[in-house]
Amino acid sequence: MNPVVRFRAASSLVRFAVWVIAPVAGLHLAVASSTDYLFDEGELAPTEYHLSAKAERQADAMAHFITGIFEEESAGPEKALNSYHQVLVIDPGFTKLAIEVAYDYLRRGEATDAIGVLKDCIAANPGDPEPALALSSIYLRHLRKPDLATRYAESALKADPGRFAAYEALWEIAQAQGDDTACARVITRALKAKSTDTNYWLQLADFLTNSSEGETSSPSEKARAQLTTCLEGAAESAGNNADALARIGDFYVLGLQVDQAAKFYRMAAELKPALPNINERLAGALIELGRNDEAVPVLERVIAGNPLDLQAYDQLYRLYEDRGDHEKALTGVEQALIIDKTNFLRQRDLMVLLLRTGRFDTAITRAADAEKLFPRMPFFTYVRARALAALKRNDEALAAFERALVEAASNDPKLPNGPFYFDYASTAQLAGRFVKAAELFRKSIELDPRNPEAYNALGYMWVERRENLDEAERLIRKALALDPANGAFLDSLGWLHYQRGDYTTALEELLSASKALPQPDAVVFEHIGDAYRALNRTAEALLYWQKSAALDATNKPLLAKIDEATAKVAAQNTAEKR
After folding, report:
1. 156 against 418, higher pLDDT
2. Quick check: is 181 in a domain?
3. Is 541 a member of any domain?
4. Which string of b and e fits 147-175 if b means at least 16 CB within 10 Å?
5. For the chain, what is the domain count?
6. Range of the domain at 248
7. CA 32/CA 51 separation, integer angstroms
8. Which tens digit of pLDDT belongs to each residue from 248-262?
9. How far apart are CA 489 and CA 468, in angstroms?
10. Residue 276 contacts residue 253 (beta carbons within 8 Å)
11. How far is residue 84 CA from its own chain's centroid?
12. Is-contact 336 303, C-beta < 8 A?
């Protein structure tokens, strides 16, 4: 090329190539000595510039590079290969282009040329590990020469000891030869590296969790120790890099060290609250650890940042429910249903919470709405039946139970289980349908023979009616065999003795029932009072009846007994004074 270069009118594309592509390629044109020189001025009055030999070579390289770009755009990479190769003849240290050209030669089956390009690049840039790594890959994967592949991988490692890609290349070579011992040695070398680069340790951690050394749902102690070494190295160098700390947490999750994951997630969240999904990951780790109270405010932050995050609502209301805060749980599931009311599980959870919080009228309305949304799901008819029963609308409740049975026969045969028949039987009992209630209690026992409540309920029903007392005793004792310390069951047994006229035994059992109950119970206190009265101990009877009335002031028969006993005690006191 003539050392005198004249810049004349150029297209906008050429200008772009000169000023944008050249720096990317690492090639630098000689610039005008006058810093205020403009292209437009040059176009009007061409000015001569003399280039040095080096600048001339760079200009030649750029010309070939731009030609290659045009050829690649117009005719494909095959056409551009010769132009790109000419760039490398002038500047063999242009690593990125050298690797691309080498692989283009490989695609053409010209491995010798590919190797030559990369070797020239290594000679020009001995401190750059990239061409050596590319050459190692070619020798291993294309030429099946592991010895030469190892040589160049080691060369890359020597050029940059803190670059993990070289260790990965050595491991792949060992694996290709089936040498597990050599694979393990490579990992050991990588773990002993003195790198202070966070990315190095994170890359090694990623490799361990994805390679055959780390592929297991339950990591071995050795694999976990290796991963821990990586993560400790990453943590030592991460400083206040929230992204790196979050990734460290992710790897601790993979290593089943969730407590450590939570620690790093929290650090990342404090440093960078807007880091994507960091609070979600922190909440998940805390829930996994059973630290639900800590997870609640984290999930609240998630929802505050994204009020449409359904998963956060789901997790949050379940946490509230687990800790017995049914009101907040109910609010949470209702908010989730505002966003998506077609989710069956959320609708189911809503019904359960409405029943638990005593919102029976709302449960009836919402269950009816859900029956329309899910016409083939008899669960909501069942909920409506339970809510109607709780409001003492027994006939409507029985009709709803029967409808749920019919729906379940074709759509959900698993629904009529022990608890279903227990609820149905209890409603039938309240409605005065005692024969049907007995049949349904027996069905509940048949389906759930380990549930003591059904045995006790049927036994107590017979005791109250003074019918089938022998069967009642067998049922109550079966319930006690399953749950010996249950105060309600002891009360049933005591009341059985009372109905048989054995008041002394009855009183003993009833007093034991009172002690066994976690909370005072109006029915048990009334039973104790009745037993004392049967033993002509009116003062004690009056004491326990008054305790019962304090808990249930609506029991009119009890209030009548109290009035009668009070009058009797007063009369006795008057007689004694005389």
Report:
1. 418
2. no
3. yes
4. ebbbebbbbbbebbeebbbbbbbbbbbbb
5. 2
6. 195-275
7. 10
8. 898 888 888 898 999
9. 17
10. no
11. 51
12. no
